[in-house]
């Protein structure tokens, strides 16, 4: 394929990505909650300069730029993700087009351009789109650093060649904590290419960059407070601290379970070979994916295919860390989405190398059939996801249209709170950041877990925080199956209090009938303990 044709095909893929990104555009806040959390942290950055804690601060800072200019405008904030996805494809194309087979590169980019599960993040305020873009910049700079590894080691070389890679690693870490492992990716790749001095210099530059950043952070914002992601990940259960700390065996158990979930389920869902809502996993499927991947990585190493080799190191390192670190209960495919393109490059290369054992002609036909089937299945699933009526209705201002009844009633109640309760009322709920977005910026108190069943302690905790009301919602435990129970944290919280103080809460509003997954608003009666204790004495 000639270069000019390759460029034309690439830009055609970019147009397709843009078109499907817009057709699939979702203006609503995702039920997962993290996207609203990023927006709220960006709002806090603008309003008070608060340092975004728990998750990486760089993405809230990125959003804060647009919040400062346009306010918390969902359309503007979500469009930044679409721009990042398009920019990420362009950066990857630029770094790979002269270093790998053009048809191979085009096929992977083309598959991503019509994939609804991948393009989901082109209209969400999750950090994936920005993180992936910076990651591709990191890969490009890493290849550039390798190209210049033979130059004389000087201050100019370090500042112009090595330091940009180190700064990218720092940025990756500040977007998502796991980004610090880009340093491992870089070291493994550089050492495989036998540039050991460059590896040592990169370690030094990264350590200095990270140290300088920590110094600036401490000087400006002070020491971090509160639970960190790392603390949460070291626990057996992220929310139930009483279960204790994870063991070495437990981490290996996570790796096995996560491998099966993310490879045999999510990777095949994204490729179109499983239904988008499939929950089936397969040990055999997982093993086969590992075999194809490892064979592709080995052949890329032997043949000196730098891009495929680097993609293999990236996907193996970052997915491996994810599988070891995360509790298997998370099971969210977005956690591997930044590495999917790299993984598919290696898998397609591995399939081709395996098919070559049957002959070159057979290999081309077989691989073309696999890619074509994946494209057809992905396209079919994507077309089913397009809902122009929902998009038009949301764009017209009805931001609740398209939610399932549980979320419709919950977020509708949050809007009602903003409209009808006095400004000094402080409401507790399960999803405070989503509530804040739909309540026009009004803050809510979040109840995620609690460590006591003592009613007095639970009631006092609300009183100390100035909580005046509480929202009891029927949010589905499983979004796809309304009959499989609800998220019952607040139900249990209130239950322990009501058992001792029946008049501690009284209903003042509801939304949705009993068979429509209703939401209730209660006012808290802090005089209930005193009154009921007096009645008992009488």
Structure description:
With 538 residues, the chain is mainly alpha-helical. Helices cover 64% and strands 4% of the residues. A five-stranded mixed beta sheet has the order 2-1-3-5-4, with helices on both faces. Helix 12 crosses helix 14 (306-325).
Task: Give the helix/strand layout.
Elements: H1 3-23, H2 34-48, H3 58-70, H4 74-96, H5 102-113, H6 116-119, H7 128-147, H8 155-175, H9 182-192, H10 196-221, H11 229-233, H12 248-270, H13 283-303, H14 306-325, H15 337-355, H16 360-385, H17 388-395, H18 405-420, E1 427-429, H19 432-438, E2 445-446, H20 455-464, E3 469-472, H21 489-500, E4 505-511, E5 519-524, H22 528-537
Parallel strand pairs: 1-2, 1-3
Antiparallel strand pairs: 3-5, 4-5
What's the quick description here?
With 538 residues, the chain is mainly α. The chain has helices spanning 3-23, 34-48, 58-70, 74-96, 102-113, 116-119, 128-147, 155-175, 182-192, 196-221, 229-233, 248-270, 283-303, 306-325, 337-355, 360-385, 388-395, 405-420, 432-438, 455-464, 489-500, 528-537; strands spanning 427-429, 445-446, 469-472, 505-511, 519-524.
Quaternary structure of the protein: single chain
The whole-number mean of residue pLDDT values reads 91
Major sheet attributes = 5 strands, mixed
> Could you give the order of strands across the largest sheet?
2-1-3-5-4
State the shape: globular
- Structural class, judged by helices and strands? mainly alpha
Q: Spans of 5+ residues with little confidence (pLDDT < 50)?
A: none
Question: What count of helical segments does DSSP give?
Answer: 22
What integer value in Å does the Rg equal?
Answer: 26 Å
- Please bin the fraction of helical residues: 55-70%
Number of strands: 5
Task: Bin the strand percentage.
Answer: under 5%
Alpha-carbon distance between the two ends: 93 Å
Helix-strand sequence: HHHHHHHHHHHHHHHHHHEHEHEHEEH
């Amino acid at each position: 394929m000639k270069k000019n044709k390759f460029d034309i095909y690439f830009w055609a893929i970019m147009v397709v990505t843009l078109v499907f990104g817009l057709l699939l555009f979702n203006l609503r806040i995702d039920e997962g909650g993290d996207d609203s959390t990023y927006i709220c942290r960006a709002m806090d950055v603008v309003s008070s300069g608060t340092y975004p804690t728990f998750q990486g601060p760089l993405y809230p800072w990125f959003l804060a730029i647009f919040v400062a200019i346009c306010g918390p405008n969902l359309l503007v904030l979500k469009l930044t993700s679409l721009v990042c996805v398009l920019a990420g494809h362009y950066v990857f194309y630029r770094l790979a087009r002269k270093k790998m087979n053009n048809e191979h590169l085009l096929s992977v980019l083309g598959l991503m351009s019509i994939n609804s599960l991948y393009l989901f993040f082109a209209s969400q305020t999750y950090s994936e789109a920005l993180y992936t873009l910076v990651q591709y910049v990191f890969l490009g700079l890493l290849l550039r650093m390798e190209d210049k590894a033979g130059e004389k080691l000087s201050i100019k070389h370090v500042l112009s060649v090595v330091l940009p890679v180190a700064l990218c690693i720092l940025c990756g870490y500040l977007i998502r904590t796991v980004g610090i492992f880009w340093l491992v990716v870089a070291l493994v790749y550089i050492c495989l290419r036998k540039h050991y001095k460059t590896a040592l210099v990169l370690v030094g530059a990264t350590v200095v960059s990270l140290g300088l950043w920590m110094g600036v952070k401490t000087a400006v914002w002070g020491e971090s407070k509160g639970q960190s992601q790392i603390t949460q990940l070291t626990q057996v259960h992220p929310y139930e601290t009483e279960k204790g700390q994870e063991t070495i065996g437990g981490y290996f158990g996570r790796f096995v379970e996560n491998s099966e979930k993310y490879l045999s389920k999510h990777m095949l869902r994204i490729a179109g070979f499983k239904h988008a809502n499939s929950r089936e996993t397969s040990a055999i499927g997982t093993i086969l994916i590992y075999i194809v991947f490892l064979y592709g990585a080995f052949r890329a190493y032997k043949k000196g295919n730098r891009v495929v080799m680097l993609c293999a190191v990236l996907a193996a390192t970052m997915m491996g860390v994810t599988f070891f670190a995360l509790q298997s209960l998370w099971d969210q495919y977005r956690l591997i989405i930044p590495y999917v393109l790299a993984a598919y490059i290696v898998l397609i290369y591995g399939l081709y190398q395996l098919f070559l054992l049957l002959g070159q002609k057979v290999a081309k036909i077989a691989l073309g059939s696999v890619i074509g089937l994946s494209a057809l299945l992905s396209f079919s699933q994507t077309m089913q996801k397009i809902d122009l009526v929902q998009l038009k209705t949301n764009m017209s201002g009805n931001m609740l249209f398209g939610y399932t009844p549980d979320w419709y009633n919950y977020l509708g109640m949050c809007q009602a709170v903003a409209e009808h309760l006095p400004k000094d009322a402080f409401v507790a709920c399960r999803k405070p950041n989503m509530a804040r977005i739909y309540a026009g910026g009004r803050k809510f108190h979040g109840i995620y877990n609690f460590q006591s069943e003592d009613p007095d302690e639970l009631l006092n905790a609300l009183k100390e925080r100035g909580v005046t009301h509480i929202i009891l919602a029927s949010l589905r435990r499983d979004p796809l199956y309304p009959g499989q129970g609800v998220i019952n944290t607040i139900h249990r919280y209130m239950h322990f209090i009501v058992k001792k103080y029946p008049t501690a809460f009284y209903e003042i509003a509801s939304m949705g009938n009993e068979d429509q997954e209703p939401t209730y608003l209660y006012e808290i009666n802090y005089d209930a303990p005193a009154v009921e204790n007096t009645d008992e004495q009488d």
